[in-house]
Amino acid sequence: MDIYHELGVKKIINGWGTITKVSGTLMDERVLDAMKEASKHYVLVEEVHAKAGKRIAELLDVEAACITSGAAAGIAITAAAAMTNGNKARVLQLPDTTGMADEALILKCHRTLYDQALPMTGIKVREVGTTSFADIEQIEQAISDKTAMFFFVAEAEPMRGSVDIKKIINVLNKYNLPVVVDAAAEIPATSNIKKYLKLGADMVIFSGGKEIRGPQASGLILGKKRWIEACNANCCPQYSIGRPMKIDKETIIGLVKAIELFVSKDYERQLHQWEEMSGKIASLLKNKGLAEIRTGYPTEPGIQPVNILRTYIKPLRKTAEKVFNELIELPTPIYSHLNGNELVINPQCLTVGEIEFMCQSILKVL
Ligand SMILES: *Cc1c(COP(=O)(O)O)cnc(C)c1O
User: Fold this and answer.
1) Residues with Cβ within 6 A of ligand 1?
2) pLDDT, tens digit, for every residue of 269-297?
3) Separation CA 14–CA 364 (nearest Å)
4) How far is the centre of ligand 1, averaged over its atoms, from the C-alpha of 355 (Å)?
5) Which domains, ranges and CATH numbers included, belong to the chain?
6) Which of 16, 22, 114 to mutate to test the pocket of ligand 1 (most atoms within 8 A of CB)?
7) pTM
8) At 294, phi and psi to the nearest 5?
9) How far is the CA of 315 from the centre of ligand 1 (A)?
10) Could you give the count of Cα atoms lying within 13 Å of 190 in the half-sphere of its Cβ?
C-alpha cells in the first residue's frame, strides 16, 4: 500500500531544506512511536502542555518553554503575550486592543513573509529605519506608551539596515519592554538555542519541524518565566487568539521526544556527514561539461542554517531557472534552491541513498 500513490501525490526529493512547502523534515521512528503511544490515552491537554513545556525547558536548560503549533504561531502568541501580559480579560478581548499598548517595533529590513502573524493579533506593526539603514537612536525615538514589544528576526541580523541586538535589548530593557526574537530556522548551531536568551531577549521563537525534527506543525517559545506564562495564557487549549493554532497531545509528546533526541545528537558528526554528502554530490556532477560546480556556505542573508555545506550548480547550457523548473517537473521531482544563476543543493533533508539517483537526474536535465 502506498498512501501517496493512492491519492495521486508525487513523492519528491528534497534538496532544498526544512521548508514547509516541501514538508519540512522527516521524523525519527522513535518520535513517531512516542506519538502513537500518546494517542492511546485520554489526558488533560492543559496538563500535557504545561508539563511537556517544563520538561523541554529542562532538556534545553532554559528558564521556561511554551509549545506552539509552529514558529509562525509563536510570533502571534508572543505578540498576544506582550499586549495582554496574560491578563485573562485582555486575552479574551483580542484582537480588539482598546486600552492596551499595541505596537510592535520592527526594523524595516527585518520584515518577512511570516510577520503577518503579528497584525492578526490586533498588534500594529511599526517599522523603524529603511531597508539599508537604521540606528539605535531611531529605535529609542520610536518607543512610546503604545509600544508593546520589539520584534527581531535573527536571520536578518547580517542585513545592512540592522542594528546590534545587544543595543536593542539594552534600550527596550530601560523601558521594561520585551524583545522577541524569531530564530525559527537558526539550528544548527545548537548554541543558538540559548544565544539570544543569554543576550537578554525575553522570548525566542523556534520551529519544531525544522532541524529539531519534531512534528511539522510544532514550535517553541523559550524565555523568561513571566513571559512564558503570558504566552501560555494566549495559547491552546485556553480560549484566546492562540486557540485556532491548536496543538494536540500527539504533537506535544512527539516534540518532547524529538528534543530528547536533539540534545543528545552529535552535531559535529552530523555536520561532517553533510560535508561528505555535499562533496559526493559535487564530485558526481563535476567535469561533465554541463555545469560549473562548487561547494560552499550560504552568504546571502535570509538563508538558514548557514553552517551546512551546500553544492552550487551553475548550468552552462541552460539558465538555472530553466533547470530548476525542469527538475520539479520530473516524475520524481527534485527540489533545490534557486539563487541567481546557480542552483543550490542543501543536504539537510537528503539521505545518502538518494544522492546517486538525484545526481543522475540533474545531469540529464543539465
Ligand atoms: C520557518 C520560519 C518561520 C515559520 O516557522 P513554522 O514553524 O513553519 O511556522 C518563521 N520565521 C522564520 C524566520 C522562519 O524561517
Assistant:
1) 20, 70-72, 112, 114, 153, 155, 182, 184-185, 207, 209, 219
2) 999 999 999 999 999 999 999 999 999 99
3) 18
4) 27
5) 3-23+266-365 (3.90.1150.180), 42-263 (3.40.640.10)
6) 114
7) 0.97
8) -145, 160
9) 30
10) 15
